[in-house]
Amino acid sequence: MTDPDQRHRVLVLRALGLGDLLAGVPALRGVRRAFARDRVVLALPPSLREAALATGAVDSVLPAEAPGRAVPSLGRWTGPPPDIAIDLHGNGPESRDALAALAPRRLLAHAAAPEPGLGRPPVWRPDEHERERWCRFLGAYGIAADPGDVRLPRPVTPSPAPGAVVVHPGAESAARRWPAERYAVVVRRLRALGRRVVLTGGPGEDALVTDVAERAGLPARDLLRGGLPFDALSALVAHAPLVVSGDTGLAHLAVAHGTPSVTLFGPVSPRLWGPPRLARHIALWHPGPPGDPHGGVPDPQLLQIGADEVTAAALSLLRPARTTARPGKGGTPRGEAVRP
Asked: DSSP string of 244-269?
């Protein structure tokens, strides 16, 4: 067995949100396999520590966060420089420079200098799916990673609402938040068919969750406000028959647990951030020009998705398995059920 003090230290930077972390799991697992005997440290916001450790791909977390999607300081790194630093944060010089400031022996980044025998670093492709982008990036450095390696272990924590359909109306930006009144319509229709529905919301989203609940006539016991701890949230999703949400972290958590999902896309195509090509995941999207995913008002393409579309997609996944088919054939007449 390798002496823990003699292991190389591999620092990976991906200091973004929950969805970004989960989309990066295939790449992180590639790093884990490539450096199986070494210590892999992931730099990301401390609120995501439990989620990061649940992937089984990292040994520890380096707290690192900045407002928005800015590159954080890595000043909390202690001890000798990393043996290897890997930039899974972005393609610009800012994230590269944050890692380079630690003087690693080797730096892997889109903006890194050419390596002997490798040539120039891989080219950033703006039209590439996020999971595939980082696996291809690592492949250019001889690190194999599978974009389909997304699943998380089943949680041991009990679900706070086993068997309930999970509806998550929140999102980091208004551009990706479908209107509360439309979510309420979907919730009412699912409850009318005898389904228990619970609403979830992250920190700062209590007012939104309450608004949807009041419009839908949902009892207080089915409002999970304030942001659940990750183990409880993970268990909730893992034991749910369906997750309905916008393009946000909960949609990626549904993919990680193999839970059927309906995800509403607007400013960003699901071909860039959507679920895998599996019948249990439906990505609703009305094609159009790219929007601003961090905009302050709901994206016009997102607003083209109607409550009838979402309800039909949800019901198609809640039927017995023998009737579950590829979506977009009759269930979403005005939109496009996209298989990214």
From this structure: EEESSHHHHHHHHHT--EEEE-SSS-
Sign of CA dihedral 238, 242, 246, 251: positive
Is residue 180 included in any domain, yes or no?
A: yes
Least confident of 74-83, 117-126, 153-162, 167-176: 117-126
Going across the sheet that includes 223-224, the strands are 223-224, 197-200, 165-168, 243-246, 261-264, 281-285, 336-338
Same domain, 177 and 51: no
Domain co-membership, 111 together with 258: no
Closest CA to 244 of 216, 219, 272, 271: 216
CATH number at 246 reads 3.40.50.2000
Give me 97's structure tokens: 């420079």
List beta partners, residue 243.
166, 261
Predicted confidence (pLDDT) per residue in 266-278, tens digit: 999 999 999 999 9
Stretch 107-126: mean pLDDT, rounded? Answer: 84
Range of the domain at 277: 165-338
Q: Kindly report the pTM of this predicted structure.
A: 0.91
Q: Taken in order 216, 335, 202, 314, is the CA torsion positive or negative? A: positive
